[in-house]
Amino acid sequence: MKNASSANHERSYRLLPSVDQLMEKDEVKGLISNYSREFILHNIRELLAVIREEISQGKADPQGVKKRVEGLIDELRQRLEEQLSPTLRRVINATGVIIHTNLGRALLCPSAVERLQELSCRYLNLEFFLEEGKRGGRDLPVERLISRLFPGKSCVVANNNAAAVLLVLNTLAEGKEVIVSRGELVEIGGSFRIPEVMEKSGAILKEVGTTNKTRLQDYEKAISPHTALLLAVHQSNFRILGFTESVRMEELVALGRRHGIPVMEDMGSGNMVDLSPYGIPDEPSVGEILARGANIVTFSGDKLLGGPQSGVIVGDRALIKKIKVNPLLRAVRAGKLTYLALEATLVEYLKGRPEVSIPVLKMLSTSVAELQGRAEAIIEELRRVKGSSLNVELMEGVSKVGGGTVPLVELPTRLMGVNSPRYTADTISRKLRMRSLPVIARIQEEKVVIDLRTVLPSEDRELIKALKELARGD
Ligand SMILES: *Cc1c(COP(=O)(O)O)cnc(C)c1O
């Protein structure tokens, strides 16, 4: 028995072509025009190793091996193609979470995309003053707009807001004390913790007050000759409700002035407009925080601002000047693609209709009536599928802003609730996710719920296609 099997193994191994033999085949030679020789070689070796392993484990008899060898080139071609297909792909966000951290946060506005398309493959005057023909600074284009949006202020752009905070603390408070309320020592999603960032910056954290109450005297008592900064941190992703007290920015600024200590707010969201018309009454804008007297404000470019990933530092000229000469800036500065997209995004605010041009704000301001109209049209179309295995109904629900901003805000919306006598909600959700154009939806009370607030109207057709496939049981 044993001998027969080892003889079989021997015969199987002998059916395998060598790497060189395969490389000499015309079909493989043809692949060299699309893939590097090393990449092909590597994959051939891996394929042969897989088959050898199968033979040694007795999983493939000579008959099976012969078949495998015949299909080897096709298998190779498929492998090569698969390995080079991009891992990052487009998805349809049907979760209703507008700034979805796992799905890429803010979508860029069309004008930003245009700029990237036009200039990312060409030379540009990134750090070059055309008039003088000399080297210049890369912050100029954004700074020009920031000084229009916030007169008298200047800015620096870092790679993200975490880097922005690190850079400011390191510049203004290395080896010195920074006073922060205990109620604001937060962890923002993705493990951004103020105490840890502060430690890395070399600043010394001086906590004051308690989790729910911090008063002006608490800050005042903590001030010493070693104090370099008073820091307020936006409680981005949580709220302490009930018996609470915190110090208003105006009071903190007055205190800072009396002692000659600058005041910074890590704002996070980068909101630039009045959000109260959209049912968000308590989220101040960058402009409001600056008007209250904050000397430095930091925020993300890809939260409510609706631009590219970046960390924008806006503040008093003298402070920004210091930040600009910190060598750490060289390590955390933004790249040219960021500047291109950020400049275009800020221009939209000066044009004055950001709720139309900036996708985040557009989604935020979409009316329930519009969402209901689109949902009804989709449901109507799905009803026409004969023998459908799906039940789809209109439901009331709420969308979220996400991205660790305005955590308590619930935007009223209309959902399409999907269930089926054939599939569980998990199965429906998985089938939607596993399409070549994945649809990401939430599960709520045994139903898959689809929120059109974050689905672009131009994606409705594709969504209908996805649901029809499911309804027909494809
Ligand atoms: C989101 C957020 C950060 C981190 O910003 P990133 O752009 O993700 O680096 C820091 N602070 C606050 C208050 C935030 O909301």
List descriptors.
Aspartate Aminotransferase, domain 1; binds pyridoxal-5'-phosphate; alpha/beta; 474 residues; Aspartate Aminotransferase, domain 2
Structural summary, described in words:
The chain is 44% helix and 18% strand. With 474 residues, the chain is an alpha/beta fold. It folds into 3 domains: 4-83, no CATH class; 92-98 and 363-472, Aspartate Aminotransferase, domain 1 (Alpha-Beta Complex), CATH 3.90.1150; 110-357, Aspartate Aminotransferase, domain 2 (3-Layer(aba) Sandwich), CATH 3.40.640.10. A 7-stranded mixed β-sheet has the order 5-13-12-11-10-6-9, sandwiched between helices. Strands 2-14-15-18-17 form a 5-stranded mixed β-sheet. Strand 3 and strand 4 (134-135) form a beta hairpin. Helix 1 packs parallel to helix 5, helix 8 runs parallel beside helix 16 (336-351) and helix 19 runs parallel beside helix 21 (460-471). The mean pLDDT is 93. Bound molecules: pyridoxal-5'-phosphate (PLP). Pyridoxal-5'-phosphate binds at residues 160-162, 188, 192, 233-234, 236, 266, 268, 300, 311, 404.
